[in-house]
Design goal:
Blueprint: H1 2-23, H2 32-63, H3 73-85, H4 91-136, E1 138-140, E2 145-148, E3 155-158, E4 164-168, H5 169-174, H6 177-192, H7 195-208, H8 213-238, H9 240-250, E5 261-262, H10 268-276, H11 282-317
Parallel strand pairs: 2-4
Antiparallel strand pairs: 1-2, 3-4, 3-5
Helix pairs in contact: 1-2, 1-8, 1-11, 2-8, 2-11, 4-7, 6-8, 6-9, 7-8, 8-9, 9-10
């Protein structure tokens, strides 16, 4: 019981603290890889903590009557809960607890089902769009991309079998050769880094639990950071000025359908400001990286240490039947 309570409290603490802490450090994203790891760590640890807490609670309730260990203070709530569930405290209490447990189980099942459905639908739509794009467009061997014969500028990538980079005739008309190569490098960086998987997971969590800011803000921040990572990959090959020129040209256009990754789709203003600014010196990048590591520790490890300390204290100080303490 104490383990489940600690994990639940840990998940709650991270869900409340992490968004404010992580957004307060380096919003411009000078170290997007570290920031991305921080956000994903906070999201993953919260989901994992809540899932394990629920599993531990269910296992404790089911196995408690058969336990051969002494019933300490922490276990007494499980004993009373079990007695209530089997009807020793009367039918109304038993019915109320069963209904409450049923609703909680139904809610957990609905969340898990919605998460799986959202991921499956996103995957199906992505594969279908990639197939249609390859059918409607023509493969350009020099660009290694599918060109759509439409005048509206569009540039994006679609993960699938095979992965597809899509550009429109309008993009070919507005970008020069170097800028076009930078945009293609940006899209290929998304595909090589499997960014679509991270986007699908974070957006699915945000869709299933839209009232939890860790998931909603986290999904937006992860998308923005992934674009910055792809910008950096393109800039290493073609230079920051070329990437910046391509972004300015493509800014404000519709770059792709839902589920795709476009060069100018997310966080365009912060990305342009970041590329316009001077490259941070190594010392500053190291300090910023350290700040993000510290914020991640504060958002994840500190709450975990606090709740584990509380659990150990309860276990050590809990009275044993017949007197004394552990």
């Amino acid at each position: 019981m104490s383990v489940a309570a600690c994990l639940a409290l840990y998940g709650f603490a991270v869900a409340v603290l992490a968004p404010k802490l992580l957004r307060s450090v380096n919003h411009a994203g000078a170290v997007p890889h570290v920031a991305l790891a921080a956000w994903l760590g906070a999201i993953a640890s919260t989901v994992l903590a809540w899932a394990i807490a629920l599993a531990v609670l269910i296992i404790d309730i089911v196995t408690h009557p058969f336990s051969i260990t002494p019933r300490h203070f922490v276990d007494s709530c499980l004993l009373h809960l079990h007695d209530a569930l089997i009807g020793r405290y009367g039918l109304p209490v038993q019915t109320g607890l069963l209904l409450l447990g049923g609703f909680a189980g139904l809610a957990a099942t609905i969340c898990a089902t919605r998460l799986g459905t959202t991921l499956f639908r996103a995957r199906r739509n992505t594969l279908e769009h990639g197939r249609l794009a390859r059918m409607a467009g023509r493969h350009h061997p020099d660009l290694d991309a599918v060109v759509l014969e439409v005048d509206e500028p569009a540039a994006y990538c679609v993960a699938g079998k095979p992965h597809t980079v899509v550009v429109s005739r309008g993009v070919l008309a507005v970008l020069d050769e170097d800028q076009l190569d930078a945009v293609l490098a940006h899209e290929r960086a998304h595909l090589a880094g499997r960014h679509h998987l991270l986007l699908a997971l974070t957006r699915s969590f945000a869709a299933v639990m839209p009232r939890i800011s860790l998931f909603t803000i986290g999904a937006r921040e992860v998308a923005r950071l992934l674009e910055m990572i792809a910008d950096d990959a393109a800039a290493r090959i073609h230079g920051r000025p070329v990437v910046l020129g391509a972004l300015r040209t493509l800014a404000g256009i519709a770059t792709g359908p839902t589920g795709s990754l476009g060069a100018a789709e997310v966080g365009i203003e912060s990305r342009v400001r970041r590329l316009e600014g001077p490259t941070a010196p190594a010392a500053l990048r190291a300090k910023t990286r350290l700040a993000f590591v510290a914020m991640t520790a504060m958002a994840t490890l500190v709450p975990l240490a606090a709740v584990l300390t509380a659990a150990i204290g309860i276990a050590v100080c809990a009275p044993i039947p017949g007197g004394g303490h552990l």
